[in-house]
């Protein structure tokens, strides 16, 4: 992971989409911009005045002499959008990353899956055009560059505190901590930095039955899709189950399920399990997207408050997917490193965090223990 002033190429948006450009737009500007980058991705805030390195017009490379030459940069600009992160080494130009997404506050770049061989600087415009052409799907359709290399799972931490933390403020503070730690490979995932949810839930315990499965079923009363009518009742039905006390917990989630007024009945029919309602509770959650610039692994870090009879606080670190190649062992290694980083973040805030090996099952047990029987 590197955090230093790097060379960012700016130019017309048409080049990024490998479209023919008018003669007046066939020009580039190379500037030195503070950049955080790793093997798989890079991020830079291109706003402000940055030193000029060179102008490139067609096949002409024009270095800028002097130490005071600078130009104003932007993350989003139709004529001078950030296009690539490049380096000069031994007189040859290397394209390290191509722009993937630019937002108002930051630009995100990815290492081209189809690599570009080093070239002479005057060929920069032509080489960028060819690079975007070869990597068009990956740089313009984000879902084409994702893969899942491990079973998506979450590491859970329980937070013990006498004060009532604001989970949304915790999420904001976590993003600030990521931004401040320039030596860390973890950054906020652009476009998915912070999501906030607040919804009711109905928790049910699985009653003893012939199949022997035990655990919990929960109806989260919210929807991830547009409702056909304002009052259409939708919920996410989930279950945390195991065959016996020695077996591992397994989890199922089924979003956007239609339910009636007796949601616990619909929940029992959905999972074909005998259930007993144990608590109605409210879940407030701030979820942040987190990315490793070194590996392209994407994670979520979520701070939650489960409010039943007494509030219960939880943090979960979940693996989502990866930009490009990877492995399950690398995912596990980085997920554990991210958990340790979260623990370091929580400690100065006076939040005592402990691993919760049983995850949601542990949370549901605590909700049930602290809630009067309905």
From TrEMBL:
<protein>
    <submittedName>
        <fullName>Uncharacterized protein</fullName>
    </submittedName>
</protein>
């Amino acid at each position: 992971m590197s955090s230093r002033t790097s060379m960012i190429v700016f130019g017309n948006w048409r080049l990024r989409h490998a479209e023919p450009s008018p003669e007046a737009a066939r020009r580039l500007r190379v500037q030195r911009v503070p950049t955080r980058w790793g093997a798989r991705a890079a991020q830079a805030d291109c706003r402000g005045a940055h030193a000029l390195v060179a102008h490139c017009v067609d096949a002409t490379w024009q270095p800028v002499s002097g130490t005071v030459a600078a130009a104003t940069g932007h993350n989003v600009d139709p004529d001078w959008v950030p296009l690539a992160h490049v380096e000069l080494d031994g007189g040859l130009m290397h394209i390290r990353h191509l722009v993937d997404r630019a937002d108002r506050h930051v630009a995100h770049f990815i290492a081209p899956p189809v690599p570009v061989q080093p070239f002479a600087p005057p060929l920069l415009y032509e080489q960028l055009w060819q690079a975007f052409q070869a990597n068009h799907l990956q740089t313009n359709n984000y879902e084409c560059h994702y893969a899942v290399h491990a079973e998506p799972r979450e590491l859970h931490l329980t937070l013990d505190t006498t004060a009532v933390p604001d989970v949304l403020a915790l999420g904001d503070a976590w993003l600030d901590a990521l931004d401040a730690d320039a030596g860390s490979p973890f950054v906020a995932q652009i476009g998915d930095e912070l999501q906030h949810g607040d919804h009711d839930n109905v928790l049910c315990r699985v009653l003893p039955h012939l199949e022997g499965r035990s655990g919990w079923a929960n109806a989260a009363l919210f929807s991830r899709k547009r409702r056909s009518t304002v009052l259409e009742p939708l919920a996410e039905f989930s279950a945390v189950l195991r065959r016996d006390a020695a077996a591992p917990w397994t989890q199922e989630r089924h979003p956007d399920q239609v339910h009636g007024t007796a949601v616990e009945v619909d929940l029992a029919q959905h999972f074909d399990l005998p259930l007993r309602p144990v608590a109605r509770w409210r879940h407030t959650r701030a979820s942040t997207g987190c990315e490793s610039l070194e590996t392209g692994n994407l994670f979520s870090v979520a701070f939650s408050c489960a409010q039943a009879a007494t509030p219960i606080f939880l943090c979960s670190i979940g693996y989502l997917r990866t930009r490009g190649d990877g492995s399950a062992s690398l995912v596990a290694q980085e997920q554990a490193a991210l958990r340790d980083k979260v623990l370091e973040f929580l400690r100065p805030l006076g939040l005592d965090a402990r691993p919760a090996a049983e995850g949601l099952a542990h949370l549901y047990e605590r909700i049930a223990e602290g809630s009067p029987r309905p």
